[in-house]
Amino acid sequence: MFTASTSVATSSPAHPAIQAIQATQPPGAPVPPSTTRKPLVLLTVCVAVLAINIDTTIVNVALPTLGRELDASTRDLLWIVDGYNLSFAALVLAMGSLSDRWGRRPALLTGLGGFALASGVAALVDSSEALIALRFVMGTCAALIFPTTLSIIANAFPERRERAAALGLWGAAVGVGVAAGPVSGGVLLEHFTWHAVFWAMVPVAAVAMGLTLAFVPESRDPSVPALDRTGLAVSVAALGLLTYSVIEAPERGWSSTPTVLGLIVAAVLLVAFVVHERRTPHPMLDVTLFRDRRFSAAAVAVTISFFALFGFIFLITQYFQFVRDFSALGTGARILPVATSIAIASIVGGLLAPRVGTKAVVTVGMTLLGSSFLWISTVAVDAPYPTVIVPQMLLMGTGLGLISTPATESILQVLPPARAGIGSAVNDATRELGGTLGVAVIGSLFSSLYADRLVEALGQVPGGPGAADLDAAAESVAVADALAAADPRLLDGVNEAFLLGLHTGCLVIGTMCLMGAVFSLVALPGRRFAQQVQARVEAETGTDAGELTAANLPG
Questions:
Q1: For residue 321, what is the DSSP state?
Q2: Which residues 6+ apart lie within 8 Å of 26 measured at CB?
Q3: Could you please report the per-residue DSSP string of 325-370?
Q4: Does 22 have pLDDT greater than 80?
Q5: Under a CB-based contact definition with an 8 Å cutoff, are residues 138 and 54 in contact?
Q6: Which pairs from 121-126 meet CB under 8 Å and 24+ separation?
Q7: How far apart (Å, rounded) are the C-alpha atoms in residues 416 and 460?
């Protein structure tokens, strides 16, 4: 098996800060790679996260096409998006521990290989059911890749400022991947069929595999305990039932017995998971970590921000194509302001956090994010793109970027580098949990409001669609769009129904983000707390705490 001794070694003595770190770690803790190799390691993990985060959202721009060619309802489209997100979120904690135990390099290679294979098979299917199943497989592989990349960064960049800069670039890659998915999808759909959206992921994953083989050192933590199977089973059941109940609620009814019962059982399972994790000697998730405000408050911030981003992308791609009649390529290109601002703000946030404090940066980011969604909730059918929509997206992307990197670094501060896999997995789980619930909750809320208003509006049109067509239009925006194209009298009703769902969803997101800003201001530790911790470390170790990895700072 792989051991830490196989990590890339330097020819000169280790930096004193690294020696101090190693002195606090158990035998087998990984040695950071050489300075010359570090940029190549960072490049590798950025390519890997770029691939799986592009895949998180690239499907969104293809939703109208999938709705038409696979005869997929809005509920089917929600599952195509959230099948990936759900398996990603449900398994990422377990995968973080497995990568620590098994070895980060082989874990990354296995995840990338499975991801490439599942993507290739997805390009060959011809039904929404088969595509949904493969999206679950792809999400499972992504769950292995994502925490492994953060674990590799935490071990390769032990000094705090150096690691903050690396995390800034990693965060930029994540943000660009999520926001650029629709852009790349639009380019592919402009020239090829929807199958190309999945074929495109194969060579990207292959390149990441080659870079991993060439540059990523082998490292693992032999002391990681065996997988907590009970905790894994309960957590998967809780998250799966919660997502299923929310997505199926528009069809079954939010107050129906199956929906209410499903939500109650999911809550009971969540409580059971916490109780089990507190009692088991080797938990999958050490819930006591949430006592540390650096960990818990940052996790809440990440969850809310990705709830907002994923819910937004699910709706905005359909707004551009159905309401504004933009092409798939035009839709993808018009989301570029989000990708650009996330990338820039992620780097800026990583540089600002060590200087002005995580509390200040995350609170400002959350406020900007909430304000952008309240603004978007007023968007009209014919809102000018350059003067209204672009500023909205820049505001939103800047807020997201300012939250992402500082909050991620705050979460990683709590655990030592040898246990970075589980810390990064918690960070990843919060991202994917937020994204999964964002698509499920906002998508289902949209579906309910849209369907009710559409039936009401179109039912009043003399000689309008029959009952069967009306039911089909209520279940699928693509069907409603086709009916409006055939009978222009229906267009105003269809747009009115869509905007009601869009506006309400954005109001919910905006309100949640502003509440998150208040929570971040209250709960995240400020600069005085960080200075006190630094003084304690310097007094206890006799080493400059600014050179020590923040993961070793006591809580």
A1: I
A2: 221, 223, 418
A3: ---HHHHHHTTHHHHHHHHHHHHHHHHHHHHH-HHHHHHHHHHHHH
A4: no
A5: no
A6: 122/198, 123/195, 123/196, 123/197, 123/198, 123/199, 124/195, 126/70
A7: 64
- Least Cα distance to 434 among 348, 511, 509 occurs for 509
Q: What distance in Å separates the CA atoms of residue 160 and residue 348, rounded to the nearest whole number?
A: 15
Put simply, whether the predicted model's pTM sits higher than 0.85 gets the answer: no
**Tokens standing for residue 218:** 């082998």
Q: Tell me which DSSP letter residue 415 carries.
A: S
Separation between Cα atoms, residue 331 and residue 186, nearest integer Å: 7
On whether the CB atoms of residues 463 and 436 are closer than 8 A, the answer is no
Write the burial class of residue 342 (CB in 10 Å: 0-12 exposed, 13-18 middle, 19+ buried): buried
Written as six digits, the tokens of 443 are: 């998508």
Has residue 278 got a pLDDT over 50? yes
In this predicted model, what pLDDT tens digit does every residue of 322-379 receive, in sequence order?
Answer: 899 998 888 888 888 988 898 889 889 988 888 888 899 999 999 999 999 999 999 9
List Cβ neighbours of 401 (8 Å cut-off, separation of 6 or more): 171, 172, 175, 341, 342, 343, 344, 345, 346, 347, 348, 349, 365
Residues in CB range of 363: below 8 A, 6 or more apart: 517, 520, 521, 524
Residue 153 identity: I
Sort residue 149 into left (φ over 0), alpha (ψ -120 to 50) or beta.
Answer: alpha
User: pLDDT tens, 398-435?
Assistant: 999 999 888 888 887 777 665 655 666 677 778 888 88
Cβ contacts of 426 within 8 Å, gap of 6 or more: 93, 96, 285, 289, 295, 299, 411
Count, in order, helices (H) and strands (E) of the chain: 22, 0
Q: What is the DSSP secondary structure assignment for residue 377, as one 8-state letter?
A: T
CA distance 172 to 310: 16
Tell whether the torsion through CA atoms of 248, 251, 257 and 258 is positive or negative. negative
Residue 127, sorted as left (phi over 0), alpha (psi -120 to 50) or beta, turns out to be beta
| CA pair distance 409, 186, nearest whole angstrom | 33
How far is the C-alpha of 489 from the C-alpha of 154, rounded, in Å? 58
What separation in angstroms does the CA of 218 have from each of 152, 229, 310, 487? 9, 26, 34, 62
Tokens of 485: 């194209």
Query: 335 is written with which tokens?
Result: 């989301």
Residue 263: how many other CB atoms lie within 10 Å: 16
- Spatial distance between the Cα atoms of 452 and 463, rounded to a whole number of angstroms: 19
Cα distances (angstroms) measured from residue 72 to each of 66, 260, 326: 7, 26, 21
CA distance 53 to 175: 8
Asked if residues 151 and 104 have their Cβ atoms less than 8 Å apart, the reply is yes
Is pLDDT of 243 > 90?
A: no
Please name the amino acid found at residue 431.
Answer: R
Q: Helices 477-486 and 443-458: crossing angle, nearest 10°?
A: 30
Mean pLDDT within 229-242: 88
Rg (C-alpha) for the chain, rounded Å, is: 23
DSSP single-letter state for residue 28: T
